[in-house]
Amino acid sequence: MSGTDKTKAGVEIAGPVVILVEPQLGENIGMAARAMGNFALTELRLVNPRDGWPNIAAQRAAAGADHIVDHVRLFDTLPEAIADLDLVFATTARSHDQAKPVMGPEAAAKEMQGQIAGGGRAGILFGRERSGLTNEEVARANRIITYPVNPGFASLNLAQAVLLMGYEWFKLVTSGALPFAMPERSERATQEQMEAFFENLVRELDRVEFLRPAEKRETMLVNLRNIFFRMEPTKQDMHTLHGVIMAIAEGRKGPAKGGVLDSTQATRLRALIAEQGTVANLPDSRGSLRGLARLLRRNPTDAERALWHALSRDRRFAGQFKRQTPVGRHIPDFVSFIHRLAIELVGNDESEGVVADRAQRKAWLESRDYRVTEVRAADVEADLETELVRLQALIAEAK
Predict the structure, then answer these.
(1) Beta strands in 209-362 (DSSP E)
(2) pTM score, two decimals?
(3) For the chain, what percent of residues have pLDDT higher than 70?
(4) Which of 375, 255, 396, 241 minimizes the C-alpha distance to 316?
C-alpha cells in the first residue's frame, strides 16, 4: 500500500526497543526496520546477526527507513542488549512451559505504555527466522507475547511479527486516530432543490412512460423519493443529478463544456451554418438534423453555456427547456415545449445572413404558435439574473 509522503513530519513517540536475536537475512532486518518506521518505533538493536553489520541488503529492504537502519546498535550477546531495560517481552509462538505472564500484543502494548510513561524502558525480543527464541532467551524476559493466529500455521515472518506489535503499540498511543478522513462535503441540498430535481425526474420518466401501470404510479414515486432522500445529497450532488437527467433526456454525451471548439469557434460555426443555409439544405432525414443539433450542443458559446447552466439548475426553469433541439426543420438555441417558448441568442456584429436566418426561423416558429424571445449574448454575460427575471415574466404571462 503506497502512501509515504515525505513532506509530512513523522510522529515522534517514546516507544519500546526492538531487539532482533541472531537474525539471519539482511532483507528481514530491513523489512523489520520498515515495519518499525510505519508505527514510529525508532530504536533497533541486533544481537549477533548472521551476515554481519552493516548490511546492504537490509538497507535496500528498509525502503526509506534510513533513520532506523543508520542508528542500529549491535551487541554480541542478549544480556548486553537488554542490560539497560526495565521490562522485557519475548515474542514466541511456543509455550516454552515457563511460569510467567502470557499476553497478546494489545495487552502488552498497554503494559509497555505504563512502563515508559513512568520513565522506565521496555523492549521486545524477536527470535531467529527458523527457530525463534531459545528457552534460555525467553527466560530472560519478564513477559511472553504470543499472537492469536491459526494454531495449525502459527509461524510469522520476522517483519510481520514486528509489524503486528508495532501496530498495537501505535494504535494505543495515538488512540487509533486515522491519518485522514472523508473530505467535508458541500452543504446538504435544500428541500427546494430536492423538489426541483424530483419534479424534473418525474417529468422525464412520464415522457418515456416509465411510471406504469397507472395504479402503481404513486407507490413508485414514493419509492423513488425515498431512494434520493435517504442519500442526503449535497447541493453539488443535486447539480450533478440534474445534469445526468438532462443528458439522458437529450441523448447527449456529458456536460455542455465537453465540446472541442472554444466560444469564438462555436460562434463562427453557427454563423457558417446560417449563412450557408445548412439546415434548409439538409436531406429529408431526421437523423441528419439531429446530428447537426448534436454538433451544436457539444460546442456551445460562452453565453449559451451560461444560460443553459442557469436554465437547467435554477428551480424556476429546471427541466422546462431543451438546448439546440430540432423543432420541425429548425434548431432554436433553446426551446420549451411546455410553454411553447423559444429563446434566440443574439451575438455581436452579426452578419446579414445570420440575421436573416434567425428571422426566417422566428417566423416559422411563430406561425406554429411558439413565442420567440431574443436575448443578447452580451446581456447574458453581463447580467444573467436580469435576463432570467425577464424570462420568468414571459413564462408567467402565458399562464
Answers:
(1) 322-323, 334-336, 341-346
(2) 0.51
(3) 91
(4) 396
